[in-house]
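dude i think i finally got it to work??
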Amino acid sequence: MDQIKIGKFISKCRKEKSLTQMQLAEKLGITDRAISKWETGKSLPDSSIMLELCEMLGITVNDLLSGEVVTVSNYNEKLEKNLISMVKEKEKADKRLLSMEIFIVVLVSAILLSLVFTAAFDTMADWLRVCLIVIGFVVFTIGVVYAVKIEQTAGYYECAQCGHKHIPTFSSVLWSMHMGRTRYMKCPKCGKKSWQKKVISK
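look at this
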């Protein structure tokens, strides 16, 4: 998707409705700074307010994502391009999230190890030694839970039995046996348990 083109289109539609950035922002319950970012192509409207924005500007979501009013003759073509573009954007975002998951696990593991080694080998009061170890395990636990949440929502798990790709519940990901990002879980489609691989595209 061409964010610059979309931004100029939002600006044009807003002006046609005789709305200032501030007025549009107030109607949507956001800041005028967010509108400015859209119109300069620095960001796109969040999906949660996209429909409301389109209604106020008198356009369709397909028009918005195309950066122009889509005619009947090329409607399906533009729709297909926009859907493919949105899928690609989601895949990129999921890859970034999974990279962040690795970074989080490495970081909290390093914090835990450094605090445990400090507590074990430095001279200090026993209460301080216990505090360092507890802090290390708390930070590690929070980090791992957050990393598992990222893994659950980014991409999909593919059933080895029927090939169905799905997003499992957080608890099933958290408590399942795993080897890296491959987890032993029940498929919601075929109902069989298998080692399911993490995949990015559906």
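DSSP finds eight helices and five strands in the chain.
im so relieved honestly
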